[in-house]
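[User] Once you have settled down, look closely at the record that follows, and write a paragraph about the fold.
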Amino acid sequence: MIPTLNEERNLPHVFAKLPEGISEVIVVDGGSQDRTVAVALELRPDAVIVQQTRTGKGNALACGFAACTSDIIVMIDADGSTDPSEIPSFVAKLVDGADFVKGSRFDKGGHSHDITKLRKLGNDGLNLVVNVLFGTRFTDLCYGYNAFWRRVVPTLALPDPTLPRPVDGSKLWGDGFEIETMINIRAAADGMKVGEVGSIEHARIHGQSNLNTFRDGFRVLRTIFSEYGRMRRMRHNRAGGAGNTVHQHPTARPANTAPVHALNKVVNRPPATGATPPAGPRHVAHLNRGARRDEVGTRRTDDIKALQARTTRED
């Protein structure tokens, strides 16, 4: 799943490095003024083009997740900074039992050709805060290269893509760059089995990043404390019920309501009919808190097996 905004010059590089066995490519466009959409379809005619409903990377991801139909979702960037050839490593860890796998520039095998000393210092500080508050052992909180089973999407509880944009032009909470931090924390706080994979971040090929070190850094810090409060409220509510820890489940959609991805303006694919919604995530041990279970009840499709076999051959 690739969020884009004026990335026509970068897409040829990104698409060329997609590994074999990828069954579905979702391109979410944020209103590009160049030939981003046309280039994506020239490079991969079977790509699904989704027009996001508001602005910001968070909204782009939420729109893309709603349109995905494959068992595994992998988030990569369109600027060439994330390497698609690493996807098999993420998939292999999921097949081995993880629910959610995040890339790390600072774990074994990871590196960044783009991060500045100031941003690295900020990332280390934010990592420390999250690890203390949530009892995790993240090494790279703010990196946006993640992969997870599609069945965990409802638990992430992202802002509804069908909601209108605020009249003052601002973003809904979760529509901005804070989305990556929000996703990582919610996966951990919900008790998912979270793994990390060393990843090499490359410098953007063309264009300039929209990231602002101080503005977005404070937004991430605000997200951390907001998510900490959310976690405490959820635990309090669970304890006040039957005393059992449960996962969030998607709210039932009212009758005669169009599917979310139809409202997200899927440009070149009609809404799927008769699809069976994925099962909710199982409750499994957190990778950073206890021993993992041997079986997480996930489906292993032919595409996933092919990617895992390719990883084994490369190793």
Q: What stands out?
A: The beta strands are 2-4, 26-29, 48-51, 72-75, 100-104, 111-112, 146-149, 194-198, 200-201. Residues 72 and 123 are 27 Å apart (CA to CA). Residues 213-239 form the longest helix (27 residues). The chain is about 35% helix and 10% strand.
